[in-house]
Amino acid sequence: MLRARRLALPVASTKVAIPGTLVLIERAMLAVGVVLLGWYALSQLQIAYDQAVASRQFEEIRMPVAKAANAPAPGRRLSLATGAVVGRVEIPRVGVSAIVREGDDTRTLRGAVGHIPGTAFPGDRGNAALAGHRDTFFRGLRDIRKGDDILLSTSAGDVHYVVRNTRVVEPTDVSVLTPTSQSTLTLVTCYPFNYIGAAPRRFIVQAEVAK
């Protein structure tokens, strides 16, 4: 009688070998992620530091000595140097609060909201315009709406604005900076808010002094 022979069948391995190339890609992506997180953390720390320094400077210019009798009258202010502290802008409902510096150059906007040169000084008669990045100081503008309060503090005093309207324009549309006969405020940031890279349009908020 012949004994049945058991056939030894190969057992499939439960382990799948990962090619060396995939391992390298995985490690490279992890390294890139760590670098990006580190860069983001450092940039946020730098912004916080810049705002703290600017806040101290703002408190200094609000001291009584900064309001001497020979200070420039509204509408006749001396030109501010680029980077000089102008004041602080706050929009409570959407969580915006930032120091405003003179200028709309890259360096100024990296650490503060910028007062666009050539426009009226906040609180004076005319159209005062402020610019800010959509992913830092003006992130909250995505939720702004008509009737929201905007508080702007300067060395000359505090001004209460109310949002009149919002709109989206092309970057070449400078009509939003047109001078006005009344005291108005225009906020400018890039749009769309979630756009990756240099956003193609501009989001505009226009406000007037509260009555």
Describe the structure.
This protein is α+β, with helices and mostly antiparallel strands and 211 residues long. Helices cover 23% and strands 28% of the residues. It has an eight-stranded mixed barrel with strand order 1-2-3-4-7-8-6-5. The longest helix is centred in the first third of the chain and has 42 residues, at 20-61. It is globular, with a radius of gyration of 27 Å. The model is unreliable at 64-76 (pLDDT under 50).
Keywords:
211 residues, Sortase, Chain: A, eight-stranded mixed β-barrel, 8 strands
Helix/strand layout:
Blueprint: H1 20-61, E1 85-91, E2 96-102, H2 106-111, E3 113-115, E4 126-131, E5 149-154, E6 157-169, E7 183-191, E8 201-209
Parallel strand pairs: 2-3, 4-7
Antiparallel strand pairs: 1-2, 1-5, 3-4, 5-6, 6-8, 7-8
